[in-house]
Structure formats: structure tokens, C-alpha cells
Amino acid sequence: MAPPVTVNTINPKVIECEYAVRGEIVILAQKLQDEIKIKLEAHPFEEILYCNIGNPQSLGQQPITFFREVLALCDHPPLLDKSETQGLFSKDSIQRARKILDQIPGRATGAYSHSQGIKGLRDTIAAGIEARDGFPADPNDIFLTDGASPAVHMMMQLLIRSEKDGILCPIPQYPLYSASIALHGGTLVPYYLDEATGWGLEVSDLKKQLEAAKSKGIDVRALVVINPGNPTGQVLAEENQKEIVKFCKEEGLVLLADEVYQENVYVRKKKFHSFKKVSRSMGYDEKDIHLVSFQSVSKGYYGECGKRGGYMEITGFGADVREHIYKLASVNLCSNISGQILASLVMSPPKAGDESYESYISERDGILSSLARRAKTLEDAFNKLEGVTCNKAEGAMYLFPRINLPEKAIKAAGEAKTAPDAFYCRRLLTETGIVFVPGSGFRQVPGTWHFRCTILPQEEKIPAVVTRLTDFHKRFMNEFRD
Question: Where in this chain does the record put each Aminotransferase class I/classII large domain (predicted)?
Fold first, then answer.
């Protein structure tokens, strides 16, 4: 008798869905790491250098002290009544923990909350958004989620009715988008970022792709914009953002703004502007544009990936539609409470005059300036490699260099039944222990090859990454030279 579940009988949408950031190369890296633990000399390197995923604390980044103090006190309120706590925790972390506990029903972080998240925390986040943008924010527009990913899934569930519904997505894109569109049965409508102009977004290309999709009978529902960019690391200029907002308004598209890297900007001439701030500054309000902004506690300078905190701010949707968004949130009961607390702290960190302010600023600026230095070092190293070009890392946590591979290497990849950039990344891993993600996992202009590298290994390990990569690349190019 055939087994009840086989690859042929599971949901075909699951098979179609791919997620390269934790794909084949990473699975191999974990296997090699296990082999090194058993026998150190099993491979020509002593450790795996994970440059595949934006997971800062796994690579040694320390959490922000104030955030963790508040979390600890909220999770174990009896500490607040102990005399020694005053000497161990800052005054403002004690005050903040008391305030947050007063907002939690039953003062218990182990209890369910309202499906949108704890009201007092949403009030704090709304005030943080208002302070950032200079325009009002409504706590009822905020849905707290387990990181930004479930919020993206929720919106895809809401918008996609069949394969005839399309979502405009940047190429290269973060695989969450292609995966969630596939899972929910929609069609990804690609628009290509222009590598020659520093991964610029051309509205003329958006229009072209929109018309092409319409001619195939696809109803394009939304436009995804990732700013700062993942995997490409660019920061959009405000004028460009205005063009995008105008395009969405004119075409009746929902603007899905992935803004999880808003703190990660490394060039002086660029600043982060939220799409909500841009649209409001243009005079557009709720009735003019449907806008969803995503934020996460996993990125920025906080890097609290494992705490799974985030939110989406939804504006422009009618009360009847919002009821159904609330229903989707309710199916999951609520997001985890630690993540909710962290999201409120990220949007309302210590202020000048608070006891923790100096240490908080020192920790924040130390992390961000180190990330900027690491980005520059890696960018320079990539541009020195034969046949490799790399755009400036303006923001986010990644570089996406382009590699012109010799024909022999492309042929060898074909014989190995793998994409040429995956072939390169696999060889890099097995010879050096460095984990990059092939560009083919993010999609790219056909005929071009890339890889994504995070800037997250600790600063003292960056020289080792550069040396190992440089030596490998020379060997690889010599081996496959035409």
C-alpha cells in the first residue's frame, strides 16, 4: 500500500515555494560544522563563517542592555520588589518595566494578549512612529506580529484570491516574497532593479511590467518595496519614493513597504524616510492610498531575531476590510509577548536625561559604525576580485556582488546540474568554510550571476573572510580560465 503522504500528494504550492537563505548551501554548511566538531581536521578550515542570513546575535553581536533589562524584569516581576534590583538594573529600566507590566492584563507575560497586541504597547509604538515621521499614527492601525514575516503572509493571504492575482516584486528580492506569493497561490510580477545605477528603481519599468501583467489577464493588487534594500543594500532617494507613491495611487495598488532596515543606513548623503511620511508629505491621506509598513526587532542595531517581534501599520483600509485583517490576526491568537515588548522599546528607546541614555547611545552607535566599516571593507574586497563588481552598501546588512564566471565554470555547473552562482558558492563553502547565498535564490536578470553576503561576522573576523575569499577566488578563476 502506498504511504498516505508522498511528494506527489502534498500541496503543490509547498513544492513550488523556495527559501534560499536557509537552502541547500546552508544545509551543507551545518553538516560540515558537525563534522568539524567531531574531527577538527576534517576540512581545510576550523570554523564555518555564516554570511548567509541577517542573524546578528548568532555571530556575536551583543543585545542592547536596556532592552534586555526591561525584558528580564517584565518576565520575572518579583525582581522589582527585591532591594538588590536597584543596584543591578538602571532606574529607567525598572520604571519602564513597571509601566509595561501595568499595561499587560494580569501583569503576566505568559498570558495571551489582544490579537493586535497589547494596547499600551501599540500606543507607545504609534507615538514612536509619530515622532519619527512628524505625522499622526493611530494605535488601532498597528498589528503586532512575530517578526515582520507573519505580517507579510497575512497581507498575501488577504490580497491573493487565485493565480490571476499578481504582486509586483523587486528583482532581486528577499525570498520571503516569492515564497509567500507561491504558498498563497498568486503570481509574482517582477520589476528589475537597475544594477548599473546602484540598484535604482525606475517607475517606467514598473509601468511596463504592470502593463505586461495586465495583458496576460493578471490583476496586479500590490507593489512590494524593500527600503533599505535586501539583498541589494540600496537606500531610496525621497524623490524616487514620491514617484512610487504617486504610481501606487494612480494605479490603485496597495503599497507594501518593507522597512525593517530603517536604522541601517551607512552613507551620509542618504536618510531613511518611511513611505507613510513621504505619502503624507505629498498631501495624500487615508482615502488616497492603501499602505502597509512592516517593521521588525530582528534587524537595525538590535538584532533580536530570536525574540520574534515586529509589527505592521495598516492605513487606508476600510473598516469592513480591517475586520477581516483582525480575524486573520485572531486565528493566531496573538504574537509572543516578549517580541511585543521589544517592538515598543525599539520605537521608544531611552531619551536624553534617562539613566540608560549614555550607555544605550554608545551601544547603538558602536554597532552601527562597526557595521558601516565592515560593509566598506567587504565592498572594497569584492571590487578587487577578478570579474567581480559590487555596488556601494548604502544600508541594510548585505552586499550583492555580481560575478562574471568563465564559460568553463558555467559549463561545469551545467554538468553538476546546478546554477553557476550556486556552483561557485558550494565550492567556496567546501574549500573555505564561508557561507554565501547564490544570487539565483533571490532571482536576478537572466544571464547574470551574483551572491549575497551579510556584513555581520564580527569585525575581527572580516579580514579572515577577505583573505579566504581572495585566495579561493584566484584558485577558482585559474582553474576555470577559458
Answer: 103-468
